[in-house]
Amino acid sequence: MPARAPLVVARAVLALGLLAAGLIVALLLAGGLAAGAVLAVPTGHWALGALSAAAAALVIRWLLLLRVAPVRLTGIDVRASEQPALVALARTVAQRVGAPAPRRVCLVAGVEVMAIEEGGVLGLGAHPVLGIGLGLIALLGVSELEAALAHELGHRRAGGRAGGLLHRARAVLTRASAPGRGGVAGAPFRRLCAAYLRATLHLARAQELQADRAAIQVAGAAAHLAALERAARGAVLFTAFLADEVEPLVAEGHQPENLYDGFRAYEAELTEQGRSGALDRELARTPAEPEGLHPPLAARLAFARAFPDAGRPRDARPARSLLLNAERLERELGARVAAERAGERPLAVVPWAEVGARVYGPRVERAGRTYAARVAAEFGAPATGQGALAALVPTLERRHDEAAALVLDPSLASVPVDDRTRQVERIVSHALGALVALSLVERGGAWRSEIGRPVEVAVGRAVVAPLHVAEEALADRSRLAEVVRRAVETPQDST
């Protein structure tokens, strides 16, 4: 169980007192050294004066490292007149947790909620800004989003005013102690900041649980539990989705029509495959990072389950229903995500339903034709998918994978022999799948692709996943030829 709120307040006050004392000592030290330098000059102690001046300058430089670059959320700013339901929810939650209402609400790309301050020093004189991820909105219900907002805004209440100030001060010190900041001369200051952050880490994690308490009081334990699990899972899935589905599109000069439609389909597909449940279990077993601010997910879930269910009404509407013109917002922010990855390259918009036929399939087909040409040049086989497979399969049955890989990808020769194993596996598996796909396309097959699944080829009523065929064939070399033959000779009228 976390520390009681009064104890968290007391610890926050103590931690702030230590921080303030350290800053005062540093200022007094700088002033004393500067005064010593001034007094040393008239007495002729030039060396002592120079040393004192240099030391004073160093201490002042350390203090100036606290002037970190301001954090500013980038995304789509929304006003109450444009998104009345979402902004009203944010303001209502802020009022209920006792936090200042956000002056600015910004829609950001990921699966996250961020409450930051813009301007001011160590949070003093700053104004609150709330960032809400469209990826999170895509996954949560209204009550779950309410819980997520209450947790993030609750940081300003956890531990009272002292706790809120400590939370902001730790954020500043974390940025001030970033590796390399201040160069060699700043190393002692960075170590001092890191030591302070480590000393207050337990308190910061207790504040996280107090923020969880605020979320439970606002939205109920059930909504908070669901929000915790879905946000943790969603953050991992969104990263995987960008890597698996979006970045390959961008690499081919395309961007999805609506990135978030794809993300919802990706999450649904992985849930149907059972992979989301496995991810939940893995996340529940994951310990906290040594320097991580959040307690482990399992501890946060256990904390929330300890609260009685007060029977609070739960708004199960999709959080997306709070948005006006949700489709336009998703397309705009999704286009920004793709553009960030493309740099200066122009991107063509493609609907998700056409990705297989227009992007992924042709890419695999081009690779298959390249492999077929290389096999034909080496073995004298026809430069077709079927011809290349006829020449390549016997080599792979004999497990001469490295010899085959050198033919399929001559650049492998430049890799040190001891480092080739993984690359050989990758080259052989990709080439075998691409050649199976090419054989099917040469028979009149059509490309198709579903989000969260490998590219497929439809021949009549049969649907074949060539990359899965390659994995199955290479897993059992005694059946390799049979597996490949069965795939490329699938009757067109089969189901």
Describe the fold and architecture.
- The protein is of the alpha/beta class.
- It contains 19 helices and 9 strands.
- It folds into 3 domains: 5-64; 76-347, no CATH class; 352-488.
- It has helices at 5-40, 46-64, 84-97, 134-137, 142-154, 160-176, 187-199, 201-219, 221-251, 259-272, 275-285, 297-305, 326-342, 355-379, 385-397, 401-408, 421-442, 466-475, 480-488, and strands spanning 76-78, 104-108, 113-118, 127-133, 254-256, 348-350, 446-448, 456-459, 462-464.
- The strands form 3 sheets. Strands 1-2-4-3 form a 4-stranded mixed sheet. The protein has a 3-stranded antiparallel sheet with strand order 7-8-9.
- The radius of gyration is 30 Å and the shape is globular.
Strand order of the largest sheet: 1-2-4-3
Main structural class: alpha/beta
Shape: globular
Q: Which residues form runs of ≥5 with pLDDT under 50?
A: none
Helix run count:
19
Topology of this protein?
Blueprint: H1 5-40, H2 46-64, E1 76-78, H3 84-97, E2 104-108, E3 113-118, E4 127-133, H4 134-137, H5 142-154, H6 160-176, H7 187-199, H8 201-219, H9 221-251, E5 254-256, H10 259-272, H11 275-285, H12 297-305, H13 326-342, E6 348-350, H14 355-379, H15 385-397, H16 401-408, H17 421-442, E7 446-448, E8 456-459, E9 462-464, H18 466-475, H19 480-488
Parallel strand pairs: 2-4, 5-6
Antiparallel strand pairs: 1-2, 3-4, 7-8, 8-9
